[in-house]
Amino acid sequence: MPSVSDESFRTLRPHHPHHFEFESVREVPDSHAWPDVHDHPSVEPSGPDSVPVVDLASPDAVLRVGRVCEEWGVFQVTGHGVSSDLLDRLESQIRRLFSLPTHQKFKAARSPGNISGYGLAPISSFFSKLMCDVIEEYKEVMKELAGRLMHLMLLSLGLTEEDISWAGPVRDTGDLSAVLQLNSYPVCPEPDRAMGLAAHTDSSLLTVLYQSSTSGLQVLRPEPARWVTVPPLPGALVVNVGDLSHILSNGQFRSVLHRAVVNRTRHRLSVAYICGPPAHVKVSPVEKLVGPSEGPAYRAVTWSEYLGLKGKLFNKALASIKLPREEWGDCPCSN
Ligand SMILES: O=C(O)CCC(=O)C(=O)O
Ligand SMILES: [Fe+2]
């Protein structure tokens, strides 16, 4: 997928952007011109087009989380306990990282097919010089927050720890795996002709996104289809419901289609903590949520199997594991 921004570092998984020297361009080259930036109108957030904000410290957090996961598949969280000092330090280190000369950034590049050991060697030697401490601290804090969010989501579905044993005790953070992805969206001379990150749903259970202070994230709302901007709120983090939570909830939770647009004057950064189940776990619709007459809507998949499908089929991956209606109730899949 070509995209203008696409400069990103993943601390666990490889990414091979079609590299481009953005600083020198005056107009978007054909290779990066995006055909359907205006496929649907973009609207500014207000009234019913405002992505909900959930205060995790509020007594009705479980109820609110459940409702927004069903209706939106995305929300902003406050009351999460992540200090603004940590977010500031993270952002300034990432700015330093992305402003390094290209040849230096390429020292951390992953070679194709080099998935095993998840690239810790090249990446960690790179990060250790520059930003290892703050990244490690952020990952720790995110692990805890993602666990908390996952448990709120499970509780809102009426599930207990027995229903999803890999999630660990509902009060605990469980045993999720995660990828940290750093995105950089350079300024763009013609933002209307380019795309930062193409429309997609996340393949995760959930993604916690820090989007600094520059807007660019948009989520698709239906009927009429429109792109709603998710405004950066000081201190808030964005939570996207991923495809695996949609599967796990037997379609009850919406996995939100979203994209990142670029702008003319501000270099935008975002940090995605992409959280999934442990590697060996197959995610399938939880039995309790499957009505006796309807059966599970999806077959079981591991995270890596699903990522493979996503790599091949992109936005049709979810449809590819949907069980046809006639097979419902007679499903060979297991939890
Ligand atoms: O930069 C953003 O706001 C979105 C990033 C995103 O969607 C992703 O990393 O999956
Ligand atoms: Fe995303």
UniProtKB/TrEMBL annotation:
Metal-binding in keyword set: yes
Entries under Pfam families matching the protein: 2OG-FeII_Oxy, DIOX_N
Residue spans crossing the bilayer: none
Segments for region (Disordered): 31-51
Residue ranges occupied by any Fe2OG dioxygenase domain in the UniProt entry: 175-277
Keywords: Iron, Metal-binding, Oxidoreductase
UniProt name for this protein: Gibberellin 3-beta-dioxygenase 1
Organism (species): Cocos nucifera (Coconut palm)
Higher taxonomy: Eukaryota, Viridiplantae, Streptophyta, Embryophyta, Tracheophyta
